[in-house]
């Protein structure tokens, strides 16, 4: 192992930076090919309703199945796609897939609730975003009533009038709107009042140590009460264990997303998951109710 110290450390750091920069360049050019080679795959993570004891929706999460790199998680290429404009094709590809799958699953009788699609704020802030979405929906003859669009608070930071108008247009088309990673952005309360949002997704950073941290528990509780008071649905992200599920259920958050329910799955595995009895989840939530 190389000891990084003194004069050498700067040199080693330089080489490291060179590697990182050239790897970013590689990803950038590979990504262009990846989109046309259909190497992007969509995984789906189910959301569980602890009062209904059933799956109540799914989130579409993109992965890059690269022949050289293997399965690449979105955190490693979304930021690059956002820098070089590829994010437009990427988000629209995932939305197209979701529209097609929603219709397929509905016909098969396995669609529960909506499929949620993440929309980069870069796309949402384009003047023609709603028009582009509308064209795609027409192209695949999709039904917006089966799709939820997930925005982050960064998407709300442009002109309030435009944001408000876009959200209302999308809702008129039949989409529902969720505010993702809630609690990590700016002026959350104002956004809830200003915009016609259907759902907030409590960021994983609050759920992560909810059983250990009184502070995280209190913040989460306030978000849940706020959402309930405004008749906005609330989902907790990143629920990994039964204690977290129990605490959230008792606090009045009944929609849970996380590894406890299921990891994001490729379509074939999701179908197997849906067929399987999810008895252990029923037990967890029945225990919480009694
Ligand atoms: P997100 O929208 O907040 O999605 C939730 C992330 O949490 C996903 O990471 C999911 O795999 C992960 N997760 C779910 N349950 C658990 C859990 O119990 N524990 C832990 N540790 N993690 C959990 P993923 O799939 O790596 O995606 C990361 C982010 O990439 C997403 O965060 C979203 O911001 C972005 N992303 C993914 N797909 C798309 C897309 O199609 N378009 C855009 N613009 N962004 C996307
Ligand atoms: Mg999301
Ligand atoms: Mg999130
Ligand atoms: Mg996130």
From TrEMBL:
TM segment ranges: none
Domain EAL: 24-278
Native source species: Psychrosphaera ytuae
Protein's recorded name: EAL domain-containing protein
Residues of the full protein shown: 309 to 598 of 598
